[in-house]
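go over both lines:
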Amino acid sequence: MSELKADNDENVTRTELQQESDRMLVDQKIPPKIIGARKNDNDNRTHEVRNSIISGSLAGMVSVTLFHPFDVIRTKMQATTELVAKSAPSAATTSGISSKSGPITVFSHTIKNGGLRAFYTGFSSPLIAQACYKSCVFTTNRLTQSLIKDVRSNSLSSYQLTLVDHFICGASAGAVNALIFVSPVEYVRSQLIAQHTHIAEGTTHLLKYGIMKGPIDVVKATYKEKGIFGLWKGAGITLVRDSVGCGSFFLAFALGQKHLPSITGAEPSSKINTIGAGMMAGCSYWASSLPLDALKTLVQTGKANSARETFLYLLKRDGATATFKQLYNGWQLAFGRGCPSAAVTLTTYSTAYQFFSTRFA
C-alpha cells in the first residue's frame, strides 16, 4: 500500500509540474509544440545564411573572371560623355576614343595601348568584391523573402511571394550591397580605368592624383585628400542604381521561373530554365539601371560633380532623346555581358546552394 501511495504522489507531482509548465507557456502565448519548431527554424536559418554566403561568393568570382573585360570597355565608353566645364572640367579627349566610338573602336584602342592585360585593369578589387557583392545580394534577398513569409504566413497556409515582393526584396538587397561594398570598389575601378585612357592619349596631366599603380594607390590618395568617405563618392547614385537594378533583376528572374517551364517543358528547377530566367534577369537589370550607371561613372571619374545636375543639364542641352542615347552609351557591352553573366551567376549560385544544402545541412 505504501508503494502504491508513493506512486500516486509521484504521478500527482508530475501532473502538477506539467500543468505549471503549460500555464507558463499559455501566459507567454507560446504553444508547446512551437518551442522545438523555433529551435529547428533557427538552425535552418543559420545553415541557410552560411550556404548562401558561400554559394554567392563562388558565383561572383566565376562571373567576374569571365566578364570583367566587358566592364572595362563599357566604363571607357561611358567616361567619354561630353559635358561642360562646370560639370566636367576634364571632359575633352584629344585622340583615340570619343563619345561616338563604338565597342569595336574601344576594344582596338585598348588592345593597342595595353594589350590583353588592359582588359583586366583594376581586376583585383572586383574579384574580391564580387565574392562580397553576390554573397551579400543573394543572402539579403533570401533573408528578406524569409522575413516576409514569416510575417504574412499563418498556421493554415504558407504565404506565396508576389512579384512586388520579389522586387522589394531585390531592391533591399541591392541597397545594402551598394552602401557596404559597391560604392568604394567601383570608385577605385573607375579611377584606374579612366587613368588607362589618359595614359593612352598622353593627357596624364589631367589626372587629379597622378599616375597610380593599382587599387592601393587609389585608396591612399583618396584617403589622404578626402578621408575614408572619399571612397564613397557617387554613393547616392550607386544606391539608386542598385536598388532599381536588383529589384528588376529578381523580379525578372521570378517571372522566368514562373513562365519558362511551360515553354521549355522542363522541370522548374532545371538548368535550362535557370539559365533562361538568369538571362532575363540580366537584361532587366541593365535595361533599368544603365542610365544610372553612366551617371555614376561620370561622377566617380570626376567628370561630373552631381548625377542629378548632370542629368538635368544634358536634358536641357540635348533634349530627352539625345540624353538617353548618351546615357545608354555602351549598351552593347552592358547587355552582351549582363545577360550571359547573370545566367552564369544564377546557375552557379543555384547549383552550389543545392550542393551545400544537401551535404552540409
The chain has one domain: 44-95+104-359. The chain has a mean pLDDT of 82. The CA atoms of residues 188 and 215 lie 6 Å apart.
